[in-house]
């Protein structure tokens, strides 16, 4: 059964977008709902709500795949093996000089690091290592959002660890993406999105 999109958009417009949605936000939300309806409709609706909440936060409410905010110098300092956080760079797989400025965050989940771009190149059969901006393609970004969170590719944690018939943990679900960073904020978004998911006509 399809989600009642009229109800959904009325709800999120009021409770998540201050009463107004741009066309680009509607298009982004539709793309996420389309993927869910085509690929994951039989799954737990809380997964959809938390994926929407994640995209809401990571794209700064644009609901479009975006590049991480920052300069080349910032990315080199934060993510490069020659920068100020060599252990972070190592954990991200950024072992080549310049990786920090190349493999910064992109997409709906802010995919970061050579390791993640290499992993998703194999999963998608697209060369994200050679062309990391492919992570900004809406179809690719949507697949990374859902399949990464379902399979636990980012941190080893996945949807089913936090939302299943015995468990509902909106706070710690943030560990799927980025441990506990901004967890309270995204918990609130997730619950509000969940309130907009209805199948009644």
From TrEMBL:
The lineage of its organism: Bacteria, Pseudomonadati, Chlorobiota, Chlorobiia, Chlorobiales. One of its GO terms (molecular function) is chitinase activity. Residues 47-141 form the Glycoside hydrolase family 19 catalytic domain. It comes from Chlorobium phaeobacteroides (strain DSM 266 / SMG 266 / 2430). One of its GO terms (biological process) is chitin catabolic process. It comes from the Bacteria. Transmembrane segments: none annotated. InterPro entries: Glyco_hydro_19_cat (IPR000726), Lysozyme-like_dom_sf (IPR023346). It holds the Pfam family Glyco_hydro_19. This is Glycoside hydrolase family 19 catalytic domain-containing protein. Signal peptide: none annotated.
């Amino acid at each position: 059964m399809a989600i009642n999109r009229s109800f959904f958009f009325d709800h999120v417009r009021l409770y998540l977008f201050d009463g107004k949605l741009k066309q680009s936000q509607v298009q982004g939300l539709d793309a996420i709902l389309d993927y869910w309806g085509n690929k994951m409709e039989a799954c737990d609706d809380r997964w959809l709500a938390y994926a929407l909440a994640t995209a809401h936060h990571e794209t700064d409410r644009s609901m479009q795949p975006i590049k991480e905010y920052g300069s080349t110098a910032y990315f080199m300092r934060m993510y490069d093996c020659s920068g100020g956080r060599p252990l972070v760079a190592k954990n991200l797989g950024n072992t080549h000089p310049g990786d920090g400025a190349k493999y910064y965050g992109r997409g709906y989940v802010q995919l970061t690091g050579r390791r993640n771009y290499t992993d998703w190149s194999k999963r998608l059969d697209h060369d994200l290592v050679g062309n990391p901006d492919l992570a900004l393609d809406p179809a690719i970004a949507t697949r990374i959002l859902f399949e990464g969170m379902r399979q636990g590719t980012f941190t080893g944690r996945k949807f089913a660890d936090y939302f299943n018939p015995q468990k509902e943990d909106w706070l710690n679900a943030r560990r799927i993406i980025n441990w506990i960073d901004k967890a309270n904020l995204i918990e609130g978004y997730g619950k509000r999105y969940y309130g907009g998911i209805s199948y009644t006509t």
